[in-house]
Amino acid sequence: MLDFLQSVCDGVLFGATYALIGIGFTLVFGVMHKLNMSYAAASIGGAYAGLLVLQVVAGAAPWMVFLCAFFAGGLIGYLVYLTCFHFIPLQSPLATLMSTVGMLLLIDEIVVHVTDGVPQSYPAMFDDVMLRAGEFTVRGDLLLVFGVAVLCMIALMALLYRTRLGLATRAVSQQSVAAQLCGIRVGQVNAMTFVVTGLLGGIAGALIGASVGTLSPLLTTPLTVKGLIVTVIGGLGSIPGAIIAGLLVGGFENVFQQFRGVTERDLYVMLLLFAFLVFRPDGLFAPRSGHN
Amino acid sequence: MKKLALAVALAFAASGAFAQEKTIKITGFGAKTGPVRTFGINSHAAMNAAADQINRSGGVKLADGSKAKIAVEFLDDGCNAEQGISVIRRIAGTDAVVAVGPTCSNVAESLFGILQKKVDDKGDSGLQFPVFTDVAIKVGLAKISEWAFRNVPNEETMYSSVFYWLHSKHPELKTVYGGVEEDFAHSRATWHVTMKGRAQANNFQVLGESKWLLADTSFATQVREMKKANADIVAISAHPFSLCGALKEMQRQGVKPKLLVGLTSSSSLETLQGCAKQAEGIIIPTSFAPVTKEGKAASEATAKYKGNADLHSMAAWENMFILKQVIEAEKISGNKKDVQADRRKIRDGLAKLKTTQGLMGVTKRTDDREADKPYLFVQAKGGQWVVLHNPL
N or C: which end of chain A has fewer CB within 10 A? Predict the structure, then answer.
């Protein structure tokens, strides 16, 4: 029983990073009704860029690396918008999908070329802190990951529901033509959405690097898959959905691993996704719709 | 008269230049993109450095007595089996006489399958092209085809020796627990086929194993299992990224085995860059360390081509010199029209070899076209690999 609880706890805490990746996917989809497949790769790219601080400032504190990853993520997000959305006809559903798949591969390969694919040690905060209650333990760095992720989510919700930018973003996501008629610059809102999701992605990438302790381009594909699963389970376009689904997927993943082993773990996560697609295709936080 | 002499001299110089243009093409292939790109970079650098050294000392002697330079080309297979097959077909379509590669065992396993199984089998239309592997290390692959040769260390022998030495040196250590990267051909096979059995054969009790995947981000559950087992030795068969992830989690959970044993491929710079502190003390058998004069020179020459010398890249270096020896012994013509005959001669020449000279000493060649290379044990100490023991 203790092992089960421990697995769930570890999984849910780490699931916060899945939630952040899921939010990035879902926010762009909510606003533009397009999938940005390069999001997880851009997040890892931002995390790698954070390591540049260590080359400039010897012995830089981990928070400086995180801050650099945060801003680099925003910059990469804007570049992704320019290259994959701004100049691409948005009417074609496949054009942006394929351009972002191309961007995923490009970012991945840039990272691989710059680092030669060599895993990079990533700084962490509170990695030597372990909270103990008998045999039950909670990793200090995972608690930090969870806390930062929750703060990011709160900040994002405040941005969306308490600021003019958020109001404009929600207006564009609900009815872009009407928003344009009201004088909202749709292009600018879209670009800002990418910057905001990029900032989130940068911090998500850094948190993932910190919690694993090592960063590798190997992470981009599994994180892309996890982000998409979280987005679908949470409901496309639903931020609360992405948060809950991220934590759920993290928890379930560990439970499946505990009971069925690592080789079957992802199989059961996929079955979970399949169950949602069949029984609740619009996800957790979307109105139920019929299916064939 | 002076003009005539000058013209004659120029003509001779030109003919000399033409003679020097004769080249023997050796094509390397392996991963130069993707997460294991560093292996391809290092092999390519080692091949270039070796070719440079051979060419500076005159090149290779051909059947007609003339000398030819070695030209190296390197193609990327991205550690992908389909791409690897496509690459080897492409190489076979050129005037390359032999290929050196690939990086990954899954690629080697697939592409050896498209080579002709038995030489002179008229009913087998498989590719008749010699491949001399430097990196892909999974046990027993060369037996797939008589056109496949490998110069990779024999992990069975190496881990047998490691556990024998550990048993005699540390008789107080009784138990072993395994950590295995389950979705990578080499690491999986090395634990299940080699390490586990070798440990048991040397009187260690294997208490169990934890499995993870190459790109896993969390090792908490696996390390908890490891902690419960409380084994004297933890043997981890994983590549640097997941090795570092597991070692860092072991540090967090306070798992401190008396000894750590690692996978051959992890005795590299990547491990030290990823987790030098956590890897401190890990013991790994390897077929290369720059301890001999030749090894040091090869290491320095490879560095000039921006490559690192390790057990894999130095096998590529050795392959180039072995091929030089075979080309000269088998009297390769070097003519484009005879390329298939030259390939056959190289295959036969490689098959005839009983021993080769390596950077660490003499390598024995086995009947199934594998190598039995000299090896030693290295240990991570203070962010460097240091030689711990030379069992030979």
Answer: C
